[in-house]
Amino acid sequence: MRSPKSLLIIALFGGTLLSAWLTHGTGVVRDDPERNIAIPADLTVPLQVQAAYNNTTMFFRYRWPAQKPGIFHDVLRYQDGEWIVEGKAVPGSQPDGLHEDRAAMMLDDGSVPEFGRYGGYVTIGDGLAGLTDEAPEEVTKYLPQTRNRLGAWDDKADDAKLAAQREAGYFLDLWHWRGGRSNPLGEADDQSVADERGGDAGKGAYSTNWDKDLNQPKVMFVSGHDTLKWDDIKAGNVTQDNTYALIPAATVPYDQNAGWQNGDVIPRRILTPGEGSRGNIGVVGEGRWTDGYWDVTLSRALDTGSPADDKILKDQGIYQVAFAIHRNATGGRWHYVSLPENLGLGRSGGITATPFQGTNPTWGDEWADVTLFYPGQVTWPMLNNANAHAGAEYIQRGVPVAFRHSPEQLANYGIEQEFKPQIKRQWLLTLLAGILLIAAFGFALNATLSTRKGA
Amino acid sequence: MAAYHVVMVHFPIALWLVAGLAIFIRAVSDGPVAQTFDRALPTLLVGGLVFGAVAWLLGLSVWPWPTLSATPMGRNHMLLASWSWAYFALLTLLRLRHGTAIWQGLNRLIMAGLAGIGVVFVGITGTLGGHLVGNYTEVGQVLRLLGWEIYSTFYVPNLMLAVIVAVSVVMVVLGVLGRNAAQRTS
User: Fold this and answer.
1) Span A110-122, pLDDT tens digits
2) Where along chain A do its domains lie?
3) B105 and B185, same structural domain?
4) Residues of B with CB below 8 A from A8's CB?
5) Based on CB atoms within 10 Å of each CB, which residue in A172, A237, A347, A390 is the most buried?
6) Contact across the interface for A444 and B78, Cβ inside 8 Å
7) Is the pLDDT of residue B71 over 70?
8) pLDDT class of A109 with cuts at 50, 70, 90
9) CB pairs under 8 A between A and B
10) Virtual CA dihedral for B158, B161, B167, B171, nearest 10 degrees?
11) What is the ipTM of this complex?
């Protein structure tokens, strides 16, 4: 090598390429609560599932990791004579560790065929609460054809059409276990998704512990004012072995003269057993967090007698399921979801439910492993828009999401959608900067090679 | 246009990879086979540029620009394709302007190194194109292990963009200084 300039030029070029490689993907993605953006540290979470059934009842067992158990949703904290609400929803993790852990499963019998191919994506219309461009009113999950136009959250089909859809089975059954608002009662919330995510007929297991007329809580713990302390809750010192939920046996009417002191806490939710179709799903044994894992078993009648609320399950049937969990004090869309799986009752599927005789299944060591992923902000209208999603034409052809995408890819894609204009701009600048660098390198090398030629 | 793009990309890939091979052989040998490869090199490089430009333009018509620029893999493919073309334009320029002088002394090792980088660029471009149409290879896994999740858009932060611009300016200045020095000594 005769010219030190050539050496320097090559070193500069190589060093810049290396630096670009080492710094790529940084500088854009960051939490932005103003835009409802909070990216979790882990983009995927493993979920294990087992399923079994007897002549009357379906059982699902779920196991997933969580650093600590989210057994509180929101609470009332006593401070200087007032009750302050703690645990209001925020983008991402609630800073005080409030907001319950949850496990949810959407279930279909083939009546919503897109669900079997694309899972929960079909329920993410425009305007959903928690999206950066959320609607001015709270909009929950809904199925595409419950709207007159794709994704038009405010253009719902008329009541007669919605009723006919429901009659025809165009809804998703939703089993919704809540670590704070249902588990202490040994229940899960039986819900569905159609024109909205709502509860089945009947009454849910939780209500708000606040008397608006008297401007005070409705109930408190039998065990007195100092049952729960704010510092203990924040420190994560309250476990499932403590009294922590306002279940009927632990509750008496609120007494304002009970000796309340600053830092005393009462849960903001009163728990009473669900009624009607909404109370169909029970917890077998106890949904329990141990050594970093939740282990929850749910059961429900194969035939609940409510075909307009629930998907009726039959021996040898094939169904579609998709799972989700909330952990790390998150709510709303800050969950982890799965791609759809087939569930076979006595038939092989992605998840095979095993028939058994007796009251409760004897679980073996075989689990179906499901990868849950952070879905970001990917809506069904966007996925069907050929200008926004290159795979839109494949959706029209009915190609399942799993054919082209893995959970890991989808997590990255979901995050990129949250920063779409910023990343597009940065990518374009990177492309142009790279060409500039190559052009400058070419010019410099050409000039210094000329030096040698002429020397 | 997708099918035409897929057909057309084989030409620049083949021409550039053979050009890379020719440069490697010529860099390590002065024998008759190496000399023959070198004589073919301008044709290979220019042909690669022409077919590469056609394939690049056809690629732009596979999807509308909003779609292409909204898809991480589409963005990555376009970025690497653009860089590959620019990079081989550089190699072509060097070979056409300097002729056989590029094989003098240790210059040949520089050429071999440059060709290696070009082959990597083209290889990654082709790999990403394969992923776009559903033909996966383990190259994607290798890149993932090296730190790039290929389903994420490749971009650098603003500070790195500034560094690239600054380095580009420095290289141009070094080039001008080198050329002036050569003119003074000639």
Assistant:
1) 999 999 999 999 9
2) 4-27+423-454, 33-66+101-205+273-418
3) no
4) 174
5) A172
6) no
7) yes
8) very high
9) 215
10) -160
11) 0.95
